[in-house]
Specification:
The complex is a heterodimer of chains A (331) and B (259). Chain A is built from 13 helices and 14 strands. Chain A is an alpha/beta fold and 331 residues long. Chain A folds into 2 domains: 220 residues, P-loop containing nucleotide triphosphate hydrolases (Rossmann fold, 3-Layer(aba) Sandwich), CATH 3.40.50.300; 68 residues, ACT domain (Alpha-Beta Plaits), CATH 3.30.70. Classes of the chains: A alpha/beta (331), B mainly alpha (259).
């Protein structure tokens, strides 16, 4: 049995297909990622799995319960951290957790114990009695993650958990997520459009685009699809360099771009010394610089969709602006 | 239709508790909401003090006629606001936090009604207390207790109506329109400021579908002993309205999508 089972799940909004026949399974205790640009359908997927939206068609199961037919059982088994903050600013951190715990019917003794535990986990113990409106963005996020755990869910959904946070805070949140996945063995499914976040955290990643699943695998396997590392070499004579480099048996692919030669190789760090052994005077060129790049999920995304995720976001932004403009005109 | 599930008392309690905490902490909002009825009371009450009310006995001065109306107004405004506050929860995301819990929606609606009615009742009682200080006289303690019953019913009816609107609206942008095109007409049509007998017949018919008409008339009956309809009739009609509004509010709230 899987923690999450999704089969041909589809959601349409007035003819617009936000999620298009997606299928995947998530194992128990897995840290699973949904990766894709804004508008790819990640949040809609999460909303369907957490029973906030009814699927148009298809089937989904969370913790063994049908999300359409057995909503209350699903709700009892999950914790959700939404993309936008969902805290009551006029309550203190502890009161927010207390509210949540009571909505889930925890006994007083249990509440006290659980709340203390989760606050320690996210290191907010000294801020428990401060109104949430006085929290920083990172603290609010941590409190929400803590809240998602109070009732000991089997599955925790994190929708863009680090959106809008600075790099340092993001790192912190990553550590908390890793820690709680290891310690409490909770299955975590997170969405993100940060490639490095998915790469760092997730055991397996689904890449989504235009509501469809583009590919699904471990980050390492996805990167291996691209054929290993890239060594970029700047040489005085690109033509001569190209001739020489392409003779090496360990070069899997070679290309030339603006006087820079790119080599696809495996274990690039071991190949750079080999390059240094070339008798440059004899070969008739001079190596000016060498750059080794490990492929990122960004490259994977580019490989599968033909665009970088940033280009995707740009066109998405244009689309959003257009929608806003139309709305204003209608008034 | 709404499937009947066991009502979750803990959830109702915690939703009520949240409302109370917010109420106590938002002093400026409470003062702001009390200010308008107090201004109405002060300026209209003083301005029309020696006026004969058309269609009313000469023994009743305008302040005694006005106070039940202003109490009704307070209940109307605070209760609609309480019902519509779902919109704020939607705007600030907290509605999702409520909706993703296993608490059934009928309990969520009841929690909001209990919380909203409590805050509305506190404010209505405050207005009544202030009125007593400036010379308003009520018939006795039983009349006060009966007035609380009327206040509660008015409150429940309009929280229900507020929930209907809140469930139909996507964001808080429509809030001003609701105030202008729903709340104020309900207020003026209710006879809170003047006897309805003076209105043209066709407007009077509209006022008969305004629950506040029966609320204000009932409050007048119990507080000063003068009303167009009997207290019992007002009570029955108001109970009917409250039930319908709560069911409608719960129905639309249940059907509305959170995201």
């Amino acid at each position: 049995m899987y923690a999450i089972k999704v089969q041909n799940l589809t959601k349409q909004f007035n003819g617009f297909v936000a999620v298009d026949h997606i299928s995947f399974n998530v194992n128990h205790g897995e840290l699973f990622g949904l990766l894709g640009p804004n508008g790819a359908g990640k949040t809609t997927t999460i909303n369907m799995l957490s029973t906030l939206l009814k699927p148009t068609s298809g089937y989904a199961e969370v913790a063994g319960f049908d999300v359409s037919k057995n909503r209350d059982a699903v709700r009892n088994s999950i914790g959700v951290v939404f993309q936008e903050l969902a805290l009551d600013n006029k309550l203190t951190g502890k009161e927010n957790l207390e509210f949540h715990a009571m909505m889930y019917g925890l006994s007083k003794k249990e509440r006290r114990k659980r709340i203390k535990g989760v606050l320690e986990l996210v290191e907010l113990t000294d801020k428990t009695d401060v109104l949430v409106e006085n929290y920083s963005g990172g603290m609010k996020r941590r409190l929400e993650i803590a809240r998602g755990l109070v009732h000991k869910p089997k599955v925790l959904f994190l929708d863009e958990p680090t959106l809008g946070l600075d790099a340092q805070t993001r790192r912190h949140i990553w550590e908390y997520i890793k820690k709680l996945n290891e310690k409490s063995k909770v299955t975590i499914i997170l969405t993100t459009h940060y490639m490095e976040e998915a790469d760092y955290l997730c055991e397996r990643v689904v890449i989504m685009d235009f509501g469809k699943i583009v590919t699904l695998d471990t980050p390492q396997n996805l990167k291996n699809v691209l054929g290993g590392d890239v060594i970029s070499i700047e040489v005085s004579s690109a033509e001569r360099g190209f001739e020489i480099f392409k003779k090496f048996s360990w070069v899997k692919e070679i290309s030339q771009h603006d006087g820079i030669i790119n080599l696809s190789v495996e274990r690039g760090e071991k190949k750079i010394p080999l390059l240094m052994k070339i008798e440059q005077q004899e070969a008739g060129f001079e190596i000016k610089s060498v750059n080794l790049r490990k492929p990122t999920l960004e490259d994977v995304f580019l490989h599968f969709t033909g665009k970088t995720i940033r280009e995707k976001e740009m066109s998405q932004n244009e689309r959003n602006k257009e929608i806003v403009r139309r709305r204003i005109m209608r008034r | 239709m709404i499937r009947l599930k066991p009502i979750n008392l803990t959830a109702i309690y915690v939703l009520w508790l949240r409302e109370m905490k917010r109420f106590v902490r938002a002093k400026s909002r409470v003062i702001g909401m009390l200010a308008m009825p107090l201004f109405f009371l002060a300026f209209l009450g003083l301005g029309f003090t020696k006026m004969n009310i058309p269609g009313m006995s000469k023994d009743i001065d305008y302040i005694h006629f006005l106070v039940p109306g202003i109490i009704g107004m307070t209940m109307l405004f605070t209760s609609m606001f309480a019902g519509l506050s779902v919109l704020w929860d939607r705007e600030f995301g907290f509605l999702k936090e409520i909706m993703v819990t296993p608490v059934n929606r009928v309990s969520v609606v009841l929690g909001r009604i209990v919380g909203g009615a409590t805050t509305a009742l506190i404010q209505g009682t405050l207005i009544l207390g202030i009125s007593l200080l400036i010379g308003f006289k009520i018939l006795g303690i039983s009349s006060f207790l009966l007035s609380v019953v009327f206040m509660l019913l008015i409150s429940v009816a309009f929280i229900g109506l507020g929930l209907v609107f809140a469930s139909k609206m996507k964001d808080i942008e429509g809030f001003g329109s609701i105030m202008r095109f729903v709340v104020f007409p309900l207020f003026f049509l209710s006879g809170a400021l003047f006897p309805l007998e003076n209105l043209p017949v066709w407007i009077r018919y509209i006022s008969y579908i305004d629950p506040l008409t029966y609320g204000v008339d009932g409050l007048r009956g119990v507080l000063i002993g003068v009303s167009s309809l009997s207290i019992t009739l007002n009570l029955m009609i108001l109970i009917g309205f409250s039930l319908v509004m709560v069911l409608l509010g719960a129905y639309f709230f249940e059907k509305s999508e959170v995201v």
